[in-house]
Amino acid sequence: MTAVAGARTDLQAHRDSIRFPEDELVRELREILGAKLVAYLGSVKETRAVRQWADGERRPSADVVQRLRDAYHVAALLRQCDAAPVVQAWFMGMNPQLDDVPPARLLREGRLEDAGPAVLAAARAFAAAG
């Protein structure tokens, strides 16, 4: 991926993460990461909540929405380079750029203002390395 194409991909992922309504955001994220991982990111125990968010029957809290928006930005960026199973593995695996903390855990448990940028930087490095 060239630098210009990479920047364009990142910009589109960012735009979509901001513009998607909550239900569409959850549907798109669920398509890439699967319902279980989205539930984990959203701090819910059952995938039923994810389905309800995706169907517009229920709304996640503002903090959860922001975490899901950050997760979508990263997932959409990585999905341009790799298949969904690779993106899922990246979210769940230890990451040396994040002190061996899995990106999903950092997004779920970290401070919003720190976790999103840190995970995004790690994703950009991963995407750039090919």
What do these coordinates show?
The longest helix is centred in the middle third of the chain and has 18 residues, at 62-79. This protein has helices at residues 3-19, 22-33, 35-41, 47-54, 62-79, 84-92, 103-109, 112-129. The chain has one domain (3-129). It has 130 residues and is mainly alpha-helical. The model is unreliable at 1-5 (pLDDT under 50). α3 (35-41) packs across α4 (47-54) and α5 runs parallel beside α8. It has eight helices and no strands.
> What oligomeric state do the depicted chains represent?
single chain
Question: What is the arithmetic mean of pLDDT?
Answer: 93
- Total of domains: 1
Shape: globular
Summary of the model, kept short:
This protein has 130 residues and is mainly α.
Blueprint (SSEs and pairs):
Blueprint: H1 3-19, H2 22-33, H3 35-41, H4 47-54, H5 62-79, H6 84-92, H7 103-109, H8 112-129
Helix pairs in contact: 1-5, 2-3, 2-4, 2-5, 3-4, 5-8, 7-8
Key features of this structure:
single chain, 130 residues, mainly alpha, disordered N terminus
